[in-house]
Design brief:
By secondary structure, the chain is mainly α. Among the domains are: 19-132, Tetratricopeptide repeat domain (Serine Threonine Protein Phosphatase 5, Tetratricopeptide repeat), CATH 1.25.40.10; 226-279, no CATH class. The chain has helices at 19-36, 43-53, 57-70, 75-91, 95-108, 115-129, 133-146, 155-166, 170-183, 190-203, 207-220, 227-240, 244-253, 261-278. Helix 2 (43-53) packs antiparallel against helix 3 and helix 9 (170-183) runs antiparallel to helix 10. The longest helix is centred in the N-terminal third of the chain and has 18 residues, at 19-36.
């Protein structure tokens, strides 16, 4: 079967499409705290921070560059480079320029305070900004390899799996999800990962395995938010295997509940036509 032509429920990868807005919000909350502790901050660095908070981006850039002239290495340099990367990324929409600064932070001190968030930005920019999926996989793997204590929820492993799904490499996406469940069984992504495994198995025409996973899932997550989507997948499997009446009954139960009523109606009408032909 052509896996790209199936009628499947829309992918539910928890793609942080609003990651820029979220990151900006967190960033500015952080700066409010920093400004309140300004007596502990280098005066020049403090001035640069205040300029950025006030929206004077180019003035902030000039002052951060002055910080770098006075402190070409060390913690102040690391922070100045990191903030320059954030300004170019969030305020000036220059992903390519921001990458240069974040990479400099990583090269300057891989164990420094700003190394991990810089690497995280690098991975996110590769995936969402540049859509360079192959590079994004490498960068997320770097996060896993070099910052193991920061990945206890399996976030980066989940992003790798989702990228393979975007690339239509379903077999590898399946492998990556299984790695997530093995290495991070308590992850907040566990439930969604198990659902995605069922969806991928269906996409790969491995319906018996999908149904088996479905049975285990229902036992573990009886009130799952993915219930309707999984019921749709199981009904689709039954339809493809020729169990038309059972498939029809399962689709019928979803009426009024399924998020894509037009697709559901199409399924019901199609099965009705097939059953009439049989008789």
């Amino acid at each position: 079967m052509d896996v790209t032509s199936q009628t499947c429920p829309a992918p539910i990868w928890s793609n942080p499409a609003g990651w820029n807005n979220l990151s900006v919000g967190i960033f500015f909350l952080g700066w409010i705290f920093l400004v309140s502790c300004s007596e502990q901050m280098d005066p020049l660095l403090q001035k640069a921070n205040e300029e950025w908070i006030q929206g004077r981006n180019h003035s902030a850039i000039e002052i951060f560059n002055e910080v770098l002239k006075e402190h070409p290495s060390g913690p102040l340099a690391e922070e100045a480079l990191f903030r320059l990367g954030e300004i170019h990324h969030f305020s000036l929409n220059s992903s390519s320029r921001s990458l240069v600064y974040f990479q400099e932070v990583r090269q300057m001190n891989r164990s420094g305070e700003f190394s991990y968030p810089a690497q995280k930005y690098i991975a996110e920019i590769a995936e969402f900004g540049l859509k360079d999926y192959d590079q994004a996989i490498i960068e997320y793997q770097n996060l896993i390899n070099h910052y193991p204590g920061k990945n206890d929820t399996g976030d980066h492993q989940y992003r790798i799996a989702s990228i393979y799904y975007k690339k239509l490499n379903y077999e590898q996406a399946l492998v990556e999800l299984e790695i997530l469940l093995e290495n991070y069984p308590k992850s907040s992504w566990a439930e969604e990962s198990k659902f995605k495994i069922i969806e991928i198995l269906y996409t790969l025409s491995r319906c018996p395995e999908a149904r088996e996973q479905y049975r285990h899932f229902n036992l573990e997550y009886s009130e799952s938010r993915f219930k309707e989507d999984m019921d749709f997948i199981v009904a689709s499997c039954l339809e493809e295997e020729g169990h038309l009446q059972e498939a029809y009954n399962r689709f019928k139960v979803l009426e009024g509940h399924y998020i894509y009523p037009a697709i559901l109606k199409m399924k019901l009408v199609g099965i009705e036509k097939r059953m009439k032909k049989k008789h």
